[in-house]
Each structure stands twice: as structure tokens, then as C-alpha cells.
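Narrative of activities, Objective 1.

The group set out to show that a structural description can be obtained from nothing but a protein's sequence at a throughput compatible with the screening campaign. Below is one input-output pair from the validation batch, recorded exactly as produced.
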Amino acid sequence: MTETTVVHLLRHGEVHNPEGVLYGRLPGYHLSENGRLMAETVAKAVAGRDIVTLWSSPMERAQETAAPLAGVLGLEVTLDERLIEASNVFEGLRVAGGNGVFRDVRAYRHFVNPFRPSWGEPYGDVVLRMKAAIDDAREEARGHEALLVSHQLPIWIVRLAAERRRLWHDPRRRQCSLASLTSFTFEGDRLSSIGYSEPAGALVRGNPVPGA
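Output recorded for this entry:
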């Protein structure tokens, strides 16, 4: 009989971002009060699961999301650079609203190739690093479950790749809400299914900055 292993990808909770900028890999962006409540809600939701390893992106918002999970699960958090947000030339800028980058003609040169994309880390590179992290976590948690805290775009892109769908997409159509779980189930080394859930869905409000 093959062993069943589940690797959960958890998007971080809501971030305090009053300026509405794309914060990407910028330091200093922490969970809001509501974001901390999201993290605590997810921790309660997974408390009874057979999670034996807990990894996180090094970004503050991801580590703060992982913290209550570590407490509930009795696990140390392993930081892994492969789970980090995708790089983006628009970090620190508003991407929506009347004064967003889409109204700035100087930004147009970054939009020449949406398939790569030309404004940030290539989708293919994101897939490679995220898949490597998932595979290593699966091996470490073989026969049990692993939980990896990451960010919207990396989670969504590796899911698209796993489902053999095209990688270029409309960010508004990503199924990866704040504090959501995208769960990869493996039978042995074979991916058998991908699930999605929103344990803190009732706490999601407004329209967060895409990719944040």
C-alpha cells in the first residue's frame, strides 16, 4: 500500500497596508489585527490534523501567520527562501485606483510580455522553487501532513502548473484568498488531488491588493 501525504500551502493573513501598495518582498509589512485573528482561526482549524512539519516564507507576514500554528501544533517553524513572494518591479507602488501604475505611461515598458511576465520573476522560476519546496516537505512528512506558509502568487502558480494549466492569468481570478489552504495530496510520490479551503473566509473583507 502507498503512503498518503498531504502538503498544505497556506497564504498569509491580512496585512496592515493603509497606502494600498504592492509590498511584495519589501520588509516592514506585518499582519493587521484582523490578519492575526485569521492566523489564529486557521490554527484552530488544523489543530487536530496530522501535521508534523511547519515551514514559512521569511517575510514578516508569513512568519506571523505561522506563529499561532506553531503554538497549537507544538512545532518549530522552518524558514525557507523558496516560499518567498515573487519579485515585482512595482513593489512599493499603488497598482489600483486613480493614481495606480496602470495610469503611468512610464510603466508600460514593463507590460510587454504578460506570459513571462516582464514585470517580475518568471512564472517558470516560481514553479521550480515552489515545487522543490513541496517535494522536500512531502519527503520530510511522508505518511503525514506538512504545512507551508507562502504568498498568493507562488501558491496559485504552482497549482496552475500542477493542474497543467497555462501559467499566465488574470490576478483577479486567482482562487487563493487570504489565510486560505491549497492542499496537495500525494499517494506515494504521485499527486492524486488538489483541494482548497478557507478556514478564515468569514474574516476576509474588501479587495486586497492582487498578489499581496
